[in-house]
Amino acid sequence: MGGRGGDRGGVMITTAGVARFRAVLADTLGWAFDDKDAGQLAQVLLRRADATGLERGEYLARLAAGDWEPELGTLAEELTINETYFFRHGEQFRVLADVALPERVRARSAQRVLRLLSVGCSSGEEAYTLAIVARQVQPDPDWIVSVLGVDASLAVLRRAQTARYSAWSLRETPDAVRERWFHPHDGQYEVDARIRAAVRFLRHNVAGDDEDLWRPGQYDVVFCRNLLMYLTPEARDTLIRRMTGALSPGGYLFLGHTDSLGSDPDGLEPQQSRHTFFYRRQSGHPAPATPPRIAPPRPAPAAAQPAPRRHVDGPYERAMRLLREERFAEALTVVEAGPAGRVVPRELLLHSVLLAQSGRLEDAEIVCRRLLDVDGLYADAHHQLAVCLEGGAAVDVAVGHYRLAAHLDPDFAMPRLRLGLLARRRGERERAADELGRAQVLLKYEREDRIAMFGGGFGRVALTALCRAEGAPR
Ligand SMILES: C[S@@+](CC[C@H](N)C(=O)[O-])C[C@H]1O[C@@H](n2cnc3c(N)ncnc32)[C@H](O)[C@@H]1O
Would you give per-residue pLDDT tens digits along the chain (474 residues)? Predict the structure, then answer.
């Protein structure tokens, strides 16, 4: 007979039952518990089995299947500490504002976007703090700042969505920040709409995968504080590899004070500034490999059938793939390795986009003008020329080319989006709302290659949310 793991209301649970619960939590949520937690685990197991109307064995079997998302969220709520507040560990946010973000602003000057991620964001204070700091650092209002907060618990994410907090949550928030970015509301503080518009929340359990979330090279800054300490070594290592891979080369990772990656983490350089410790993704270091997924078994090919011819990607497809992964320098090398003097419009367009993404706006403009010599009615080329001109401060001329692009292809969402953002910047509210409204509708059907080339690293959903947020009256 097994030992006793816990007692509630006279019902006893065996040590074996608690051990099974521990193993299931390690598999499904990546959590590590030690023997001292047995009592608490036994209570939670009893309570949750009762609440779901299942026998304890059935409850554990259903949980072990791994696809019971609402229950996993409830357990995340019950078994982790969700405590957090704005500007927690303020020195990290000072380093973010004074060291990390100015460097990322330089690196992103061609794209004018900053992407930040808060992993284990709890009720949202960390994600909103990131957006406030980024907003204060961004060089001009035309930059796009996007913060994504992820957590396994739906309950905390719902609180995050309301964006209303008690004075206690703002206990470390500087007065000037409180006055500027929070509004008193029914005895609480509401986060300013401009900050809310920059922040999105997503339910994600770090023990599972999500290709979009961990797409290589996309984030400028990742915060993952006070979560690693709950995880098993395997879940922790996988998460660290994913976060490292998803950072841009030169991007920054901030952990909690008690989290550490050891002295020589793969792909990351430890850094120190103002008594604050953080990590930087090494440039030129390949993303650390994540464990391969197990592929489903493939049916054996019928013996009599000839083997299908494998399609081999050409330089254009390879460069597009690298562009989607934001590996601009490598994509540029692929494009420039092709035969000189070739005049294929889509290749010239991609060449110009990659030059612009690498900060070589003048070269990008030259290539784009060459393309327009060949095909003066190519809508994408007019859009691209406008991007070059806007970056070089010839904004009025850029507006003309965006308009021409939209005229030449009425289904093209991206020039509408840029025209809307420019109008917003100039304070032309009606025009901004009109252009962004049209962009929002057209984005549903926008071609994927256009989103990859002109979306600044954002996907369709994020661009649609941006149109909605920027087009809304203020
Ligand atoms: C202590 S809070 C950290 C909040 C914030 N990062 C901070 O440091 O102030 C830890 C958060 O991690 C979340 N969490 C725990 N396990 C998780 C998992 N497997 N996947 C995603 N989030 C998880 C919890 O729901 C909780 O909100």
Answer: 334 444 443 345 678 889 999 999 999 999 998 877 888 889 899 999 999 999 999 999 999 998 898 899 889 888 877 889 999 999 999 999 999 999 999 999 888 999 999 999 999 999 999 999 999 999 888 899 999 999 999 899 999 999 999 999 999 999 999 999 999 999 999 999 999 999 999 999 999 999 999 999 999 999 999 999 889 999 999 999 999 999 999 999 999 887 877 666 889 998 989 888 999 998 765 656 654 433 333 333 333 344 444 456 788 999 999 998 888 899 999 999 877 777 789 999 999 999 998 889 999 999 999 998 888 889 999 999 999 998 777 788 899 999 999 998 999 999 999 999 999 888 899 999 999 999 998 998 888 899 999 998 888 877 888 888 877 665
- Whole-angstrom CA distances from 458 to 100, 144, 212, 219, 301 are 21, 10, 11, 11, 39
Q: Is 43 close to ligand 1, i.e. is its CB under 6 Å away?
A: no
Residue 74 makes CB contacts below 8 A (sequence gap 6+) with 48, 153, 155
CB 95 within 8 A of CB 89: no
Q: Residue 263, Cβ neighbours under 10 Å: how many?
A: 6
Domains, the chain, in order of start with CATH, read 4-69 (1.10.155), 90-281 (3.40.50.150), 315-471 (1.25.40.10)
Q: Helix 345-357 vs helix 379-391: angle between axes, to the nearest 10 degrees?
A: 20
For the Cβ of 352 lying below 6 angstroms from any atom of ligand 1, the answer is no
CA 327, CA 286: separation in Å to the nearest integer?
11
- The single residue listed with the structure tokens 């003048």 is 362
Residue nearest to ligand 1 atom 8, measured at CA: 225
CA of 155 to the centre of ligand 1 (A): 12
Q: How many residues does the chain have?
A: 474
String of b and e for 284-311 (b: at least 16 CB within 10 Å)? eeebbeeeeeeeeeeeeeeeeeeeeeee
Q: Which atom of ligand 1 is nearest to the CA of 80?
A: 24
Q: Kindly report the CA angle at 257 between 253 and 262, in degrees rounded to 5?
A: 65
Q: Is 238 in the pocket of ligand 1 (CB under 6 A)?
A: no
CA distance 271 to 276: 8
Cα angle, residue 320 at apex, residues 240 and 382 outer, rounded to 5°: 125
Element (H, E) at 113: strand 113-119
Structure token pair of residue 389: 């001109």
Task: Look at residues 325, 379, 321, 370 and name the one whose alpha carbon lies nearest to residue 348.
Answer: 370
Model pTM score: 0.68
